[in-house]
Every structure is written in C-alpha cells, then in structure tokens.
Amino acid sequence: MKKILAILKEMTGAPAEFQVLPEGRIEIEGMEPAFLDEAAAGVVIAAFKARGNDMVVDYEHQTLDDGQAPAAGWIKSLAWKGAEGLWAACEWTKKAKEYLENREYRYFSPVMIVGAKDGRVMRLVNIALTNSPKINHLQPIVAKWDAMEETREKEEIMSEKLKQLLGLAGNAAEAAIEEAVTLLVNKAKEMEAQVASLVACKEVLDAIGAKADAGKDDVIRIVASLKAPGDVARGFQRQVAALKTKIADMEQQDLVALALKEGKTSPEEIGKWGRDLALKNPESFRLIVLSRPAGSVIPVGEIVVAKDRPGAVSDDLQKHVNRMMGVDDATFAKYNK
C-alpha cells in the first residue's frame, strides 16, 4: 500500500505532462477573455515547432525581468487533445520536483499572445510556476494531496476491518491478509462445487421418482426395478414386428381391393406383380396402379357373358375394348360379322 501511495505521490507531484490551456473560453482576471480552438492550437503548436527550442518554465515570471531566471523545467512538446485542451510535455528540474511534491507550488501561469480583434490565442511565450495565476478555473499542475490522504485513510480503515473479519491480528502484514483471503476464496469454490453436486443428485432423485431423503439402498432398488429383462425386451420387439407385418398385409389388401373395384387393374396383373408391389412398396402401387383412370383396365360393374354365344363377351364390354383399341363401330362391324 505504501508503495502504491508513493508512486501516486510522485505522479501527482511532478507530472510528465499537464494541461496548459483549456478548450474554448479562457477567463483572465482583469482582462478580456481569450479563446482557444483546434485551429488556434494548431497555430500555437506550429510556432513552437518553428522555434526549435525547448520552452522554459520559470518561477514567478522571472524570465520577463532582467535578473536571474532559473528554470523550473523545460517544455519538450505541445499537443492538442480536443475537449481536454492544449497540453505540454515537461522535464522538471530536481528543485522544481521538490517544490511540486511538497505542494509549495500548485499552479502555473502561461504567457501568451492573443489576437486584438477576436482574442484567439496565437502564441505561447513561456510558462511560470506560481500560486497566483491570472487565469480563472485553471487546472492545478498538481492534484490536491488532501484527496490522496483521504484515500489512504479509507484504505487503512478497510484494511483494519478486513483483518477483523478474517480473524487476524491488528499488526498482520499484507502477505497474511492475502493468504487468508486466498484461503477463503478456495473454500467458497469448494462449497459452490458441493452445492452443484447436491443439485445434480436432487435432479437424479426426481428423475427416478425417489424421495428427497432416499438412501443409497432405496436408490439402488428403484434403479434395479427400472431395468427390463432381456427376454421381455426381445418379446416386445417381436410383437412390434408382427404388428408391423399385420398392418402391411391389411394395407396391401385394401390397395388391391380398391384397384380391382375401380377397374384399375386385373386379377392377372395382381397375381403377377401387383400384390407383391402393394405389400413391399405401397407408394409405388398407388403411383402406378391407383393413378389410372377408373375402368381403364376392366369396366366398372358386372361382366356379362352373352348367353347365345358361349365364350363371347357382352356388347358393352366389346365397345369398351374397341374404344381402348381405337376401333370405331363401323370398322368393327365390317370385319367382325
């Protein structure tokens, strides 16, 4: 914890970069406001680069006087960060770092040139460390150490409470706290696994219809009763197969009877291949036979044999056959007297 606070103190005490000017309106005490946007920042950055020199950061604007003006730091580069404004990267002297870390200096004051008509920032001359900046609402160069101290105090309080919860002594080191927390986390994981196992067991008990408090023997007895003997299973399979065969025979008989009734096949055709097709592939039988027009093979109705001519067929049947063969009545009468 002390290491972290020391690092934070160093970062906030002498920052490697800081905001020089905010974006937009810049309020200056006793003067007209200035303005900074992306275009103006581009002009300022270009002027800095054209000089080719690092820009000095002094104390209390001493560079503007004729006397000695020791540097507090050197601006190495300027960068525009949009809504965050114009920022400067700085290398600080040892003395300036001490001032900043000790909070002897918290603010700075930029010396800049602005346009007489529009008040836009045109150039940055230098920067001075000061505790009396002319710019209002200026972002301090160092953060309030009070906040850091408050954070440290809160962390110490939390550390003491954590030691109490873990049952550790008040002078326990951070390593002991970390070890105790790790042990607690591992125990929590083990408990989570046990709970998951219990939930899984409950689901198994529910699946087999056992009570929540069923013992091992009860579970074994229920599972054993659910096992079907091999001969029972095979007998059931035989019954299913026999039932399927019976259903297929019934479907075959229905298909054959329907085809004969509607005159879509003949007994001879059924005897040759129709009955076998109706049994093995009912769909093909429907497609080949039942899709025919009614009476296309044998006229629907009773077939009457002429009594005066043994072996002869009725006139209606003969006419039907003639139509199927494409023979008209005149041609048939001419050649079949």
Molecular structure report:
With 337 residues, this protein is of the alpha+beta class. It folds into 4 domains: 2-143, no CATH class; 167-227; 231-301, no CATH class; 302-337, no CATH class. It contains 11 helices and 8 strands. It has helices spanning 2-13, 38-51, 94-101, 145-166, 174-208, 216-226, 230-261, 267-280, 282-290, 315-325, 329-335, and strands at 17-21, 24-26, 34-36, 55-59, 71-80, 86-92, 107-114, 121-130. It has a 6-stranded mixed beta sheet with strand order 1-6-5-4-8-7. Strands 2-3 form a two-stranded antiparallel ribbon. A hairpin with a 7-residue loop joins strand 2 (24-26) and strand 3. Helix 7 packs antiparallel against helix 8, helix 7 (230-261) packs parallel to helix 9 (282-290) and helix 8 (267-280) runs antiparallel to helix 9. The longest helix has 35 residues, at 174-208. The radius of gyration is 53 Å and the shape is elongated. Residues 1-11, 144-150 and 300-307 have low confidence and may be disordered.
Give the quaternary arrangement of the chains: single chain
Contiguous uncertain segments of 5+ residues: 1-11, 144-150, 300-307
Question: What is the SS-derived class?
Answer: alpha+beta
Helix content: 40-55%
User: Proportion of β residues?
Assistant: 15-25%
Distance separating the two termini: 128 Å
Number of individual domains: 4
Summarize model confidence as the mean pLDDT: 78
SSE pattern, N- to C-terminal: HEEEHEEEHEEHHHHHHHH
Number of strands: 8
Radius of gyration: 53 Å
Major sheet: arrangement of strands: 1-6-5-4-8-7
Form type: elongated
Sheet bearing the most strands, described? Answer: 6 strands, mixed
The DSSP helix count reads: 11
